[in-house]
Structure formats: structure tokens, C-alpha cells
Amino acid sequence: MNIWIMRHGEASFNAPNDAARNLTANGAENVKSQGKWLGEHLISQKIQLDKIIVSPYLRAQQTLEHLMLGMQAVNFPQYFANITETWEEITPDGNPYTVENYLEFLSDEGAKNILIISHLPLVFDLTQLLTAHKGNVQFPTSTIVEINWVGKIGEVTQLKHA
After folding, report:
1. Which three-class secondary structure string do you get for the chain?
2. Residue 97: φ, ψ to 5°
3. Burial of 146 (0-12, 13-18, 19+ CB in 10 A)
4. What's the CA gap between 110 and 1, in Å, rounded?
5. What is the pTM of this model?
6. Do the Cβ atoms of 28 and 61 come closer than 8 Å?
7. Could you give the CA distance from residue 39 to residue 20 in angstroms, rounded to a whole number?
8. How far apart are CA 81 and CA 161, in angstroms?
9. Does the pLDDT at position 151 exceed 90?
10. CB atoms within 10 A of CB 80
11. How confident is the model over 101-144, as pLDDT tens digits?
């Protein structure tokens, strides 16, 4: 299974609570650029995403919107609505073992290519878990890491910072 883990774009701190933080203009542009890169990468490898899992927090939802805009700029097929799932378990305090269990379920169901859009510390912790602590990836905002995950052993195969 190929798993792309993305940290949301740069967000403002001017919000009534953490879940309501908006992307900044710079964050939105960086995410669009990452979307263009990801779209080109997936097209060149003839990869179709099976599932997109996104945090319910506003900045993650906006990250998905801007990522799709960037992907559409390179004519990536538009089928996101049918495969996108908003999941409470991938907020900043999410449990990486719960996410791992869900990824195992999706794999058993035949999923081969998954995109996750979430937050620190979960994106770091999940990357560590899926790579048996060999994928020591730093996650500035908008970072995307690709992990080839076979069973419980994964390897970082791509890393793209904004």
C-alpha cells in the first residue's frame, strides 16, 4: 500500500479555538503547489487514489480544497468527492495505532493508495509507526511524505516540502 501523509498548510492563530484556525494566504498557495506536484507524481506513476482521509479541523479541510485545486491544474482526474472521508481520529491528538488499524482494514478491503491530511504531532507519530521508527521526517506545514507500507513495515519513498 502507498500512503501519502500530509500536514495541513500554514494556518493563522487568530481563531476562537484550534479546530477553527484558517489557512493563511501563503499556506493556501503552498498547498496548491504541493497539489500540483502530487498530481504530476500520481499521473506519471499511473496511480489513482483509493481513499482520502482528512481531519475535520478547518485548516485540514481547506488544505484538501487547495490541494485539489493544485492537482486539477495538472489535469488530475476529479473524483475526490467519492473517496473522501472526514475522520475525527486524525486530529492533532489522534492515536497512530488507531490509524494503523484502519489502514490495515482498508488494505484488506483492497485499497492500494491512501492520502491522509492531518496535523502534528499525529503526522510525525504515524510516520514513525508505519516505518518502524526509520522514517524520521520533519513536518513543516504542507509537507507530504510517501510511504510504501507492506504489512507493518514501511519505507519513506518520497518527501516533498513546500
Report:
1. CEEEEEECCCECCCCCCHHHCCECHHHHHHHHHHHHHHHHHHHHCCCCCCEEEECCCHHHHHHHHHHHHHHHCCCCCCCHHHHEEECHHHCCCCCHHHHHHHHHHHHHCCCCEEEEEECCCHHHHHHHHHCCCCCCCCCCCCCEEEEEEECCEEEEEEEECC
2. -70, -35
3. buried
4. 9
5. 0.96
6. no
7. 28
8. 26
9. no
10. 17
11. 999 999 999 999 999 999 999 999 999 999 988 878 899 999 99
Cell of 156: 519513506
Q: Cα–Cα distance between 11 and 119 in angstroms, integer? A: 11
Residue 17: per-residue pLDDT = 97
Q: Which of 92, 93, 115 is nearest to 103 (CA)?
A: 115
